[in-house]
Specification:
The chain has about 80 residues and is an alpha/beta fold. It has one domain. The chain is built from three helices and three strands; from the N terminus they run E-H-H-E-H-E.
Length: about 80
């Protein structure tokens, strides 16, 4: 599990690194280095109506494993 506050293209708008947060791309690149197989991205920017689709699409460009972008209160069965 890792937070991914915004999409990589939104870095200038939201300035996640100034707030000690991450972009989807930055998380995915680092998790690949660690050979993580499953990644849950949470603490996402709420202004996206289709954030699950957008974050998953970007994550799959940079991450080789499974990606889950849950909605608030979703249960994830392991």
């Amino acid at each position: 599990m890792h937070e991914a506050f915004c999409l990589d293209a939104e870095e200038e708008k939201f300035k996640p690194f100034e707030k000690h947060h991450s972009t989807v791309k930055s998380v995915c690149v680092e998790m690949n280095k660690l050979n993580i197989k499953n990644l849950i991205l949470y603490h996402t920017e709420e202004s996206h109506k289709d954030k699950k689709e957008l974050y998953t699409k970007e994550a799959k460009q940079y991450f080789d494993g499974n990606v889950i972008v849950p909605n608030d209160l979703d249960e994830i069965v392991l």
